[in-house]
Amino acid sequence: MVFNSLAFAEFFAVVFVLYWVLRRRLRAQNALLLGAGYVFYACWDWRFLGLLVLSTVVDYGCGLLVHRVKVPRTRRMLLALSMIANLGMLGFFKYCDFFVGSLALLLDRLGIEASPPTLGVLLPIGISFYTFQSMAYVIDVYRREIEPTRDFLSFAVFVSFFPHLVAGPIMQPRTLLPQVSRPRRFDLEQLYRGAYLIAWGLAKKVVIADNLAPIVDDLFGRWETIDGGLALLAVYAFAFQIYGDFSGYTDIARGVARCLGFELALNFNLPYFSASPGEFWRRWHISLSQWLRDYLYIPLGGSRGGRAVAIGNALLAGLVACLGGGVILAIGEASGPSVEGFSVLGIAMGVGLLIACSAILTIRGTVALTCRNLMLTMMLGGLWHGAAWTFVAWGAYQGILLVGQRLLDPTLERLRPADPFARNCWKAACIVGTFHLVCLGWLLFRADSTAQAAGMLGAILSGPSLPPATYLAPVLACVLPLLLVQAVQYASGDPEILLRAPWYVRSVAYTALFYGIVLGGEFGGGQFIYFQF
Amino acid sequence: MAPDQTRSTIPLGLLGALILVVAIEASRADRPIDRQTKTGLAWQFGAEAAAEPAVIGARVLCLGDSRMKLGVLPVVLEDRIGLPAYNLAVPGAPASATVILLEKALRAGAKPSLLVVNFDENLLAVSPRERVSEWPELLGPGDWLGLARRSGDLDFVLRVGLGMILPSWRDREAIRERIVAALGGRERPILPELRALDRNWRRNLGAQVATPGERVPSSTAFIDSGATPRSRGWRPHPINAQAVHRLCSLADRLGITVAWLLPPSRADWTDRRRSLGLTEAFDAFVAEVLDAHPNVVVVDGRSAGFPDAAFRDPTHLDGLGASSLSESLADALLPLLDRGRADDDSARLVALPAYRPPSSRLSLEDMATSAAMVRTR
User: Fold this and answer.
1) Closest CA to A10 of A30, A34, A39, A49
2) Cis before residue B217, ω within 30 degrees of 0?
3) Chain B residues whose beta carbon lies within 8 Å of the beta carbon of residue A499
4) What is the ipTM of this complex?
5) pLDDT tens digits, B98-127
6) Which SUPFAM superfamilies match (chain B) (predicted)?
């Protein structure tokens, strides 16, 4: 039941009416939300409903016990239990076959006959989102940042609240749990603003993302036959497809939640207007960035010494070794066994990899630790997105950008012009530059293999020509109106500026939005990209 | 970010947008042909024709799907029977749509003595949902409520309802094509064909006269397709089966005889249907209807031996084939019109005589002529 389907509209209409009929009975409202969440999830695959319930029960119990128990060691064990349960589920369903497959490939390349068994299990939808959110609750209770809730119903609603259940935003317990526990008031203004978000999100999804999807699929599908211009267009189109898809989902989720009296976190804040990679990650998938910062980057020790540093070093070295090994294997695969040069190159790369890993293991000192933690966070963030080495490579690339920015920041600050006009030009150049750095990352993200990413990049760098109008026109038709609206939002610093415009401007804008969706939307039941994560 | 505190509590922007949308949609109610699709045009034509004088005055009314639309020519029936006739069949129409068309015609004042109907086995087997885009063309509010009650499928009726209240939604594909064509400084590529179809149907009392010798190139793929016919375990969709019975009961109440035509199909297609067991299952349903409704007569043209040359594709006749079928059919219908109901059970199963080339030299405008005429206009 995707948000852009009539089935969801019918489901939501029923829930909405019942929900506000019960407005004076909080527990009944919450029970309805829980039931709706489970029905919504079961519509995807009822067999995985048990995982959602398991995660809920384990973390509810662990939260209460962690709070009640005073012995540090027992508290740590309870925290570990929660993490093992959640990460275990995630690892089993999402990463098990990936690591086994990678091992089999490695053994095969080394000439060792082995066929380790794969599980062949389906990925339960939304598992990366709800396990992270549920786990965050226990960590917050462990850190004594929040009080655990004793009301199981409230906690279950917190985990399974259907608007954000399958693709976020990943809500912080301290933000969402109080909203679940306190009475909600029907507010026409809130409903109005919710409907606006739903409409805007729907436009991003069905008009922009779903119209760009076939173009992207076509061009990436025949990447070997397209020239640099089309390859560049494919990357640009994918950048806006994934943005429209994911931010559209989030807007609908936030709009639906608003209609029910909840406020979900802003997850996208005009990310393609970022002037640096760091700013991009403060504007793109904000809830994941915050989660990674709060529950991974900071616990890794920041610039502190001690055991966290050693663990972080070992983790990063391991990831880099795996990724490097993957790259060496991929190059070997692409070169073919007959190329003798490869053995020299492979040995050289292997030695380089060993040196790099050894260097990582010795990392100490503030700047080095910060950079290391950034790399580690982004590589694990990449792996969170999908069980493939291309995602780890994408994460590593993002890490390199963030580290590079941190190291270059003092120099860039000195270069920044003082004159206001020149400063604006500088900022515009930074925005364009950052967008292209991000696009390069999207190439890694979307490519099915490193060979494809390298091939398309090579085509782009060989000198892009103007793509034919049959490809260019639809991409521009999707992207330009979005950029125009977002430029106004960016210049005003207000993503909801339309809600504050005069009524006649809003009337015309809403009508245009309505006809944009009705006439320009694709309603073929396209799934949201982030559901696979 | 907090909303503007100075704004009115009445959502003026939303109200203004609603008024604009209502005004735009109302302006689209009277729709020119260039906002139509091919199937949409056929359904719209049927819905509008049902209330036209030619249908109201018809004594022989043909209803059904594309096999009726292309197979039975009212001009030929009129010539041989001597009674006004009209072909109200709609391509792709399931039985439930056929009943609604009949009800529309009756409400408009039609008083037919004889209904000639066909119900294609493929269309009988599938859910009315399959035509969700076309239903809005046909239904008024009352018909929609009736469909909602009978189908019990909330999702389906909501989709249809959306198409009814929002003409822009219903016509979105055509509007998109039109915009793309206009950007290229052209008209929609399908527009000449739509104009030709519209003209051909008007000239031929609702029938479509396919150009003699015209062949649809995909016919071989069509017959080999695993998807059609839906043969194994064939049975009519409950809503369609109910609609067939409803049509027969309605006709019975009004004293109208129903001639259920089983039209001929190309030999390879007929053989394939038989080998898949489809013919047997379909015949069982026909027998069930025949048992339940004494006013129904089955006119079976499947064994009439129509040559391959008479077909434009495996199931649809070309203009000459249609003339021949219409002549045979008219001869088979004459006794029914004379006697009213069949006297005995054997007279309720009429086999059409063996194929013979059409004898009449009536002037029929075929699709090629219609296309040429709309081009020169």
Assistant:
1) A39
2) no
3) 3-4
4) 0.72
5) 999 999 999 999 999 999 999 998 888 888
6) SGNH hydrolase
Q: Where are the beta strands (DSSP E) in chain B?
A: 60-63, 85-87, 114-117, 257-262, 296-300, 349-351
Could you tell me the domains of chain B? 33-214+232-376 (3.40.50.1110)
* Class of residue B149 by CB neighbours under 10 A (exposed 0-12, middle 13-18, buried 19+): exposed
Helix axes B38-49, B191-203, angle to 10 degrees: 30
A265 phi/psi in degrees, rounded to 5: -70, 145
- Neighbouring C-beta atoms of residue B240, cutoff 10 Å: 24
Total number of residues shown for chain B: 377
**Residue to substitute from B21, B25, B171, B176, interface A, most A β-carbons within 10 A:** B21
Is the Cβ pair A511, B20 closer than 8 Å?
yes
Contacts B7 to A, Cβ<8 Å: 500
DSSP three-state, residue B3: coil
Residues found in chain A: 533
Q: Is A46 on the interface with B (CB under 8 A)?
A: no
Q: In degrees to the nearest 10, what's the CA dihedral of B42, B47, B53, B56?
A: 120
Residue B230 confidence (pLDDT):
46
Provide, as residue numbers in chain B, all residues whose Cβ is less than 8 Å from the Cβ of A192. Answer: 11, 14
A7, A193, A195 ranked by CB distance to B3: nearest = A193
Which DSSP helix (H) or strand (E) runs through B194?
A: helix B191-203
Q: What is the pLDDT along chain A (533 residues), one digit of tens a residue?
A: 777 777 888 899 999 999 999 988 899 999 999 999 999 999 878 888 888 899 899 999 999 998 988 888 899 889 899 989 988 888 888 777 777 777 777 777 667 777 777 777 777 888 888 888 898 999 999 988 899 999 999 999 999 999 988 877 889 899 999 999 999 888 888 888 899 899 999 999 999 999 999 999 999 998 888 888 899 999 999 999 999 998 999 999 999 999 999 999 899 999 999 999 989 999 998 998 888 888 877 777 655 555 666 666 666 666 666 666 666 666 565 555 444 555 566 666 666 666 766 666 666 666 677 777 788 788 888 888 877 777 888 888 888 888 888 888 888 888 888 888 888 888 899 999 999 999 998 998 888 877 888 888 888 888 778 888 888 888 998 899 999 999 998 988 888 888 888 889 999 999 999 998 988 888 765 555 555 55
Q: Cβ neighbours of residue A66 under 8 Å, at least 6 residues apart?
A: A75, A78, A79, A82, A138, A141, A142, A148
H/E element holding A408? Answer: helix A389-415
B60-63 and B349-351 beta bridge pairing: unpaired
Give the C-alpha separation, A13 to A36, whole Å. 12
Could you say which of A188, A189, A510 has the minimum Cβ distance to residue B17?
A: A510
Q: Find the residue in B nearest to A505 (Cα).
A: B13
CB contact under 8 A, A518 and B169: yes
Q: What DSSP assignment string belongs to A93-143?
A: IIIHHHHHHHHHHHHHHTT---------PPPPTTHHHHHHHHHHHHHHHHT
CA distance B95 to B128: 9
pLDDT value of position B203 = 92
Q: Smallest Cα–Cα separation from A261: which of A315, A174, A194? A: A194
Measured distance CA(B116)–CA(B263) in Å, rounded: 11
**Beta-carbon-side half-sphere exposure of residue A27 (alpha carbons within 13 Å):** 3
Q: Is A461 exposed, middle or buried (0-12, 13-18, 19+ CB in 10 A)?
A: exposed
Partner B contacted by A7 (CB < 8 A): yes
Asked if A287 and A267 touch (Cβ cutoff 8 Å), the reply is yes
Active site residue A285: no
Whether residue B256 is predicted with pLDDT greater than 50 in this model: the reply is yes
